[in-house]
Amino acid sequence: MFGDLFDEDFSFLSNNQCGKPKSKLKDAELPVPRENTNLSGIKNQGGTCYLNSLLQTLLFTPEFREALFSIGPDELGSLEDNNKPESKVRIIPLQLQRLFAQLLLLEQHAASTTDLTDSFGWKSDEEMRQHDVQELNRILFSALETSLVGTSGHNLIKQLYHGTVVNHIVCKECKNVSERQEDFLDLTVAVKDVSGLEEALWNMYVEEEHFEKDNLYRCGACNKLVEATKSAKLRKLPPFLTVSLLRFNFSFEKCERYKETGSYTFPIRINLKPFY
Questions:
Q1: What is the Cα Rg of the chain in Å?
Q2: DSSP letters of the chain?
Q3: Among the listed ranges 68-72, 128-132, 144-148, which one has the minimum average pLDDT value?
C-alpha cells in the first residue's frame, strides 16, 4: 500500500547476532549529540515526514508510551530470538519500544526508523510518493492491534483511542427512530468550504439532513417512502480524540487529487457537549 517508501537496500550488509540487518554504515558513525533542547528528532527516509510526526506524537502521549513499555519480553519475546523457529516474537511493538527508548535515552540528534519500517513490511516496487498521516495512523494502529493479540496490551489502542458515533433517522410520519452505531479511532472532518474545526463539527453533529421531495426515506415501520431527518451524535469519546482533516479533494476538471491549503482555525480548548 505504501509502495517502496520504506524500501531499503541491505545487499551490502552482513547479519548481526540478532539475525537481522545492521543499520546502514552512515548510521554506524558517531551520532550527532542532542542540542540544548535535549530532544531527539527522527531521520527522514526520503518522504516520511508524516511518519516522523506521528511517531513523535505517540512518544509524547505518556499513556500510550507507558502502556507500550509495560509489556515485557515474557509476552513480546526478544529480537535476539527472531530467527528461532520455535519462538514467537512480536516484532512491531518491540521495534517501537526500541525506537522510543532511543529517542528518550540515547545521546543523539536524530534516530533512524529503518528497523521499525522494515518490521512493518512496507516494501514493494511502487514509486515513492507522499501519503496522508491519517492513512498511516490507521494502518499503524491496526498493525499494533494485530501484533498485541494475546498479550496484556491487546486492548491498548481501543482503550485510548476508540470512540462511538450514533446515526439517527427519524420518520416524520410515525416518529420511528432508526439508530445505527459506528466505531471510530479518529474523527474525519471537512476542510473545503469550512472556516475551522468548530464549524465542521457543528455541520456534522448539530445540523440535520432532510429526506424530502425526490429523496425520500423508506421507513421500516411505515413500510413506505416518507420524509425524514438524519442526524449524528457523539456517544462515547476516547481519552485521546484524534481529529483528521479531509485536506485532499478530487478535481473532476483535472482528474487529479489536490490538497486544500486555505486557512483553518481550531481552538486550544473545545467544548464537545453540543455534539453529544
A1: 23
A2: --TTTT----TT--B-TTSSBPPPHHHHSPPPPP-TT---EE---SS-HHHHHHHHHHHT-HHHHHHHHTS-HHHH--GGGTT-TT----HHHHHHHHHHHHHHHS--SEE--HHHHHHHT---SSPP----HHHHHHHHHHHHHHHTTTSTTTTHHHHHH-EEEEEEEEETTT--EEEEEEEESSEEEE-TT--BHHHHHHHHHTS-EEE-TTS-EEETTTTEEE-EEEEEEEEE--SS--EEEE-EEEETTTTEEEE--S--B--SS---GGG-
A3: 128-132
pLDDT in tens, 68-114: 999 999 999 988 887 777 778 899 999 999 999 999 988 888 898 88
What's the chain's average pLDDT? Answer: 83
* Cβ atoms 228, 123 nearer than 8 A: no
Q: Residue 209, class by beta-carbon neighbours within 10 Å (0-12 exposed, 13-18 middle, 19+ buried)?
A: exposed
Q: Which residue has the higher pLDDT, 99 or 33?
A: 99
pLDDT value, residue 29: 63
Q: What are phi and psi of 39, to 5 degrees?
A: -105, 150
Q: Please report the pLDDT score of residue 22 as a whole number.
A: 41
Backbone torsions φ then ψ of 35, nearest 5 degrees:
-85, -170
In DSSP terms, 179 is beta-bridged to: 168
- Pairwise pLDDT comparison (49 vs 216), residue with the higher score: 216
